[in-house]
Amino acid sequence: MKRLVCELETLEKARKLRIEIEGKPLLITYFEGAAYAMSDICPHMGGKLSDGVFEDGKIVCPVHHASFDVKTGEVNERAKILFMKLPTAKAKVLPATIEGQKVYVDL
Ligand code: FES
Predict the structure, then answer these.
(1) Over the stretch 52-71, which tens digit does the pLDDT of each residue have?
(2) Which of 61, 68, 83, 107 has most Cβ atoms within 10 angstroms of its Cβ?
(3) Ligand 1 centre and the CA of 22: distance in Å?
(4) Number of domains in the chain
(5) How far is CA 11 from CA 31, 44, 68, 94, 107, in A?
(6) What pLDDT shows up at residue 87?
(7) Is the whole-model pTM more than 0.85?
(8) Furthest-apart CA atoms within the chain: distance in Å
């Protein structure tokens, strides 16, 4: 079901937003003129992705620094504790669209 998540102008300024819909925390990002959505819960150990650094289309989890592609959810860098790289699953992405001045996510 397609749901309105925010105004485009708000997302363009913020570049990343945490939005909660029906109890589901989502990370909404703006990159190269498009909007992307993924679960805001890190698939590694539940870190809050929206608190991480967002750069070049990648979000870095603030807890163990796993890095995910916001377009696909693919893992760019696995989670790390000290020098150990840990198994890290892909992040869950949802379809996001910009229509007019509004951003929608398909839940
Ligand atoms: S909780 Fe996100 S990398 Fe560990």
Answers:
(1) 999 999 999 999 999 999 99
(2) 68
(3) 24
(4) 1
(5) 10, 26, 19, 16, 18
(6) 96
(7) yes
(8) 46
